[in-house]
């Protein structure tokens, strides 16, 4: 295993976009399933329908869990990007303020 993990800001932005795309696909699929279920809601009210409703509640919770996990991942990546950029800016500013010996010291 490597001693350090090197990841660039653009790579993290790409990962964020992939997460957002996955979220969009998940929400689209859920919407399509929900629309199909709505048609069934008006067709049948029996034991099978009750089983479907129970299963549907489970699917809904799985979708919510996945959505929350995506949120946590995206927020973590954004926080990491912000921390990296702030750190890089602080390092750059610190180096810019260093006395590099370009001017001769004044001795009294």
From TrEMBL:
SUPFAM superfamilies (alphabetical): EsxAB dimer-like (SSF140453)
Coiled-coil regions listed: 12-39
Protein name (record): Uncharacterized protein
The keyword Coiled coil belongs to this UniProt entry's keyword annotation: yes
Keyword list, A-Z: Coiled coil
InterPro entries to which the protein is assigned, alphabetical: ESAT-6-like_sf
